[in-house]
UniProtKB/TrEMBL annotation:
Entry-linked PROSITE patterns: CYT_DCMP_DEAMINASES_1, CYT_DCMP_DEAMINASES_2
Record flagged with keyword Acetylation: no
Chain sites annotated for binding Zn(2+): 46, 76, 79
Name under which the protein is recorded: tRNA-specific adenosine deaminase
EC numbers: 3.5.4.33
GO molecular function, one term: tRNA-specific adenosine-34 deaminase activity
Known catalytic reactions: adenosine(34) in tRNA + H2O + H(+) = inosine(34) in tRNA + NH4(+)
Name of one Pfam family that matches: dCMP_cyt_deam_1
Domain CMP/dCMP-type deaminase: 1-122
Function noted in UniProt: Catalyzes the deamination of adenosine to inosine at the wobble position 34 of tRNA(Arg2).
Protein's organism: Hydrogenivirga caldilitoris
Protein family: Belongs to the cytidine and deoxycytidylate deaminase family. ADAT2 subfamily.
A biological process from GO: tRNA wobble adenosine to inosine editing
Length: 142
């Protein structure tokens, strides 16, 4: 999660919502990303999607079997379903997203037994993840 936080700090420097993400396989980081929606003018440029695409490119396969994703904020519905499509084994996130969360806060997409792939998920509360987001939005509101 420390490495995901470093990515989130890169996002802040660009004026992006501070969400960072890393993809791990066999205890090695194979991809990393942070939000770039404003920089790329792309609503889908969430940290998770960018990291999943990078991991897929590095492995030469769209199936990320054996991979775990660590992200500072609970994935939204789009990113949660991307985890299913990419066949990620597990996602770990450090802060809930009560407005857009697709894993536990607003929706429980990854718990839907009708999906063809199940992604295990773990919410590991991380004060630094929440703090970065609170500070970012506090400054935006003033």
């Amino acid at each position: 999660m420390r490495e995901a936080l470093r990515e989130a700090e890169k996002a802040i420097a660009l004026g992006e919502v501070p969400v960072g993400c890393v993809v791990v396989k066999e205890n090695r980081i194979i991809a990393r990303a942070h939000n770039l929606t404003e920089s790329l003018k792309d609503a889908s440029a969430h940290a998770e999607l960018l990291a999943l695409r990078e991991a897929s490119s590095r492995l030469g396969d769209w199936r990320l079997t054996g991979c775990e994703l660590y992200v500072t904020l609970e994935p939204c519905i789009m990113c949660a379903y991307a985890l299913v499509l990419f066949r990620v084994d597990k996602v770990v996130f450090g802060a809930p997203d009560v407005k857009h969360g697709g894993v536990m806060s607003l929706y429980n997409l990854l718990d839907d037994e009708r999906l063809n792939h199940r992604v295990r998920w773990v919410y590991e509360p991380c004060e630094d993840c929440g703090r970065l987001l609170r500070e970012f939005f506090r400054e935006k509101r003033w």
